[in-house]
Specification:
Belongs to the glycosyltransferase 15 family. With 529 residues, the protein is of the alpha/beta class. Helix content is 33%, strand content 15%. The protein contains 16 helices and 18 strands.
Length: 529
């Protein structure tokens, strides 16, 4: 009996091991998942990350995935779609699946997606590469880079593994996410009916696309039904041209980060657009990138309200970072990037130009509507809001919006967003046009002179912004939205007087003096519910 009992045990163990081995081998096939889709009872959109990678990218990709999981995906468990022009190794599959909280899919590209179409003269393409390399054009001599740009422009969304999804989030090996993402961008895309989202915008190298715009204009003439007329208020064409469409200003969304609608890319309008460009041969005879291809299409075909700036990702792709400016996010460890290095503050960024085009209360509201709403204010707390006229010099008068005792979760970035718009419209330097922080309490405790009004004591969080007199309407729009969110009453000074605060008293805690401020009327009222 003793040997028989242990023999049965050994047989059961052997059968179990064989079953596990068969299961493990089955799960390693392309297009299948390695692991169960762990559900955290969070409702997800029909979306996925899509990553074009090689086996040798595994190390950098794991670093990116770990950051993306920690910052975002451990809350939502979205799947990953990995694509490669060569077969993925078992090691690649095993080590990427081990980091994912959602399903993982692995696919290989078909020859149609990663090769020369039959109308391309490959000898002409080779000569063009050699010429561009000799001229020092970035990636000018790299053949695989051209296949990649063509694939990302017109084929990734047609891979069979992508057919099941409505939205995608493009991720590349070696990128970083510097901020916690505590909301679902895919949900924002669906609820706001957005078609395209970006984090960084900049100008393209002109020597990589010498004939792209002329080819685009040919497409516009041939397919006018696909284009939003440039005189339409919803048109974004002014983002990509400064002369009514004669030339391309090189502005584009950096496509290594994009969250977008697959239905738009699958539309007949976009397919006609890509096919027209593809037939022209510029992906191989020049070095057309997928970033300007996507961006031009978005500017021509999408409404302003359908394109979104994801400012709060803390997205880094060497050498640029998009870092949000909320002063409380760094101390709270929500972000680990430096706002002073943010790409949108550089002169070569096209993001301010985009924000200028979409400047409206609806767009500003949409920009931050996904942020966490503040807790309902206490009925006993006092809120102070005012719009005031300020004099910096006798020749320069501005309009201010002063807010005190406001919730810091949602208000500061709204102020910053409007500040960026005001900077463009009023040409006020970044260093003096917008600021969010805490204003110091009044330092002088002596009673005011008889001719001076009583000073307000600044003890709570404050937000401060100024813009030119012509932007008073925009400030009023923002104040109305603040009124809806924070239930504070806005009062306007009708007869402002000379400033009664000294320069030392009227300064910010970070040492940046404010302009001298004229007397403003501040009402202190209980919050009404």
């Amino acid at each position: 009996m003793f040997p028989i009992r242990y023999g049965k045990t050994a047989l059961l163990i052997l059968v179990a091991l064989c079953f596990l081995l068969v299961t493990f081998k089955t799960l390693k096939k392309d297009g299948t998942t390695y692991q169960y889709d762990y559900s955290n009872n969070t409702q997800r959109e029909n979306a996925a990350f899509v990553i074009l990678a090689r086996n040798e990218d595994l190390g950098e990709l794991r670093n990116t995935m770990q950051m993306l999981e920690d910052r975002f995906n451990h809350r939502f468990n979205y799947p990953y779609v990995f694509l490669n022009n060569d077969p993925f190794s078992d090691t690649f599959k095993e080590f990427t699946t081990g980091l994912s909280s959602g399903k993982t899919y692995y696919g290989q590209l078909s020859p149609e997606m990663w090769s020369y179409p039959d109308w391309i003269d490959q000898e002409k393409a080779r000569v063009a590469r050699e010429k561009m390399e000799a001229e020092g054009v970035i990636y000018g001599g790299v053949e695989s880079y051209r296949h990649m740009c063509r694939f990302q422009s017109g084929y990734f969304f047609r891979h069979p593994l992508m057919n099941q999804f409505d939205y995608y989030w493009r991720v590349e090996p070696h990128v970083q996410f510097k901020c916690d993402i505590d909301y679902d961008p895919f949900k924002v895309m669906r609820e706001k009916e957005l078609k395209y989202g970006f984090a960084i915008s900049l100008t393209e190298y002109g020597n990589t696309i010498p004939t792209l715009w002329e080819t685009v204009k040919e497409f516009m003439n041939e397919y006018p039904q696909h284009i939003i007329p440039k005189d339409d208020p919803d048109s974004l064409i002014e983002l990509i041209t400064n002369d009514g469409g004669k030339t391309y200003n090189l502005c584009h969304f950096w496509s290594n980060f994009e969250i977008a609608s697959l239905s738009w890319l699958r539309s007949q309008a976009y397919l006609d657009y890509f096919n027209h460009l593809d037939k022209a041969g510029g992906f191989f005879y020049e070095r057309w990138g997928d970033a300007p291809v996507h961006s031009i299409a978005a500017a021509l075909m999408l409404k302003k309200s359908e394109v979104h700036f994801f400012y709060d990702m803390g997205y880094f792709h060497n050498p640029f970072v998009q870092c949000p400016s909320e002063p409380g996010w760094l101390p709270a460890e929500k972000c680990s990037c430096d706002p002073t290095e943010s790409m949108d503050k550089h002169w070569w960024s096209c993001t301010p130009q985009f924000l200028k085009l979409v400047a409206s209360i609806q767009d500003i509201s949409s920009l931050l509507s996904h942020m966490k709403k503040p807790d309902p204010p206490s009925p006993n707390r006092l809120y102070k809001c005012t719009i005031a006229t300020s004099t910096i010099t006798p020749a320069q008068t501005t309009t201010q919006l002063l807010l005190s005792d406001t919730q810091s979760i949602i208000l500061p970035q709204r102020i910053i967003d409007l500040a960026m718009i005001l900077q463009i419209n009023s040409k006020i330097p970044v260093s003096s046009s917008g600021f969010v922080g805490h204003i110091q309490p009044c330092l002088n405790k002596d009673p005011p002179a008889a001719h001076q009004p009583k000073r307000p004591t600044w003890t709570e969080s404050h937000a401060y912004i100024r813009g030119s007199r012509t932007n008073a309407d925009q400030l009023r729009i923002l104040s109305m939205e603040i009124n809806m969110i924070h239930a504070c009453k806005i009062t306007r000074s009708l007869k402002p007087r000379r400033s009664y605060l000294s320069r030392r008293q009227d300064s910010f805690v970070w040492g940046k003096p404010s302009p001298l401020r004229k007397q403003v009327l501040i009402n202190k009222l209980p919050v009404q519910h």
